Amino acid sequence: MLGETGIGNLWHAFSKHSLDGQKDSLMRIDGLQYANWSEKIFRQMRKGNLDAVHVTIAYHENFRETVLNFERWNRWFETCPDLIMKGQSAADIDTARATGRTAIFFGLQNPSPIEDDIGLVEILHTLGARFMQLTYNNQSLLATGCYEDEDTGLTRMGKQVVREMNRVGLVVDMSHSADRSTIEAAELSDRPIAITHANPHAWHPARRNKSDAVLRAVTENGGMLGFSLYPHHLKDKSNCTLVSFCEMIARAADLYGPDHLGIGSDLCQDQPDSVVEWMRVGRWTKEIDYGEGSASEAGFPAMPDWFQDSRDFGNIETGLRATGLGDSEVAGIMGGNWFRFFAQNFKPRPM
User: Fold this and answer.
1) What's the pLDDT tens digit per position in 55-111?
2) Is residue 9 in some structural domain?
């Protein structure tokens, strides 16, 4: 098992090799997608040289329903073995790159799949989950979501689940959690946590974008921020420019350090509008929850014209270079930082 020094040396050697080659040889990792999966999308990932993607395996599903989602993905791995493979460790990304495929890593956007049973944390990791959010937008058994009026922080069960996630190698993801809960998780967890898909609140004051205090708590404890391309999280929404987005990342690199940043596009490609209602509403209400939008903005918003799907990752790389970020910083943000984070945090602790 590689120690911290070994992982650092591995990434240094890889990054030097990548930068000596073509630009397209840079590692590219997307920290979050929830597409309507198809062979077409997998081929677009390959055209975009996307080496790994964190895929949402559950939103509001219970344990049994989540197992069925894993089963569906097993069929995709059977039918598209030349395009995708199951990812469980950082080493699987090396295999994917060597064989011209995209490694698929699974995550839960809600703790609903563990129901009220802490023992299911380890079972889900065994099945292949590598991330779990402690909340979606609402209060959960573990913590407070970012849409609640009062943030009471981690619950008693939440603190126990964080420790169990640390033990088995399931990353604590606080993308949809409220500020106090996120800061408490960052400080309690003895492994780095992640915000896989969000942006700084100071750049665009969406309810789910993150305050400076939250981002400092996460990054100062070794964690990661994946920048979201979901239009409701962007300045000027669907009309956000590539320049604005990349300058926001460069500013974040100055504030929080470039080694803690990556991309988490939150791409919901080809999904029907009924799916965004499921994401926001689940089973907890009979009313329509419009989330960051309004009744006039129901459904999925249009993506910016410079990022329609995974084939457009090269535009982000070009935009980051234009801000003046150095080669190693761009390589890290495009994928190297996620690679290092995966290598450090996906494995169970030795007994």
Assistant:
1) 999 999 999 999 999 999 999 999 999 999 999 999 999 999 999 999 999 999 999
2) yes
Contact 26, 335 (CB under 8 A): yes
HEC assignment per residue over 145-193: ECCCCCCCCCCHHHHHHHHHHHHHCCEEECCCECHHHHHHHHHHCCCCC
Q: Is residue 351 part of a domain?
A: no
**CATH number of the domain residue 150 falls in:** 3.20.20.140
Reference 230, options 269, 177, 173; nearest CA is 269
User: Got the DSSP string for 278-343?
Assistant: HHHHTTS-SS---TTS-GGG-SPPPPPTT-SSGGGHHHHHHHHHHTT--HHHHHIIIIIHHHHHHH
pTM of structure: 0.91
Q: Which residues contact 278 (CB under 8 A, 6 or more apart)?
A: 59, 60
- Residues paired with 145 in a beta bridge: 177
Q: How many domains, the chain?
A: 1
User: Within a domain: residue 97?
Assistant: yes
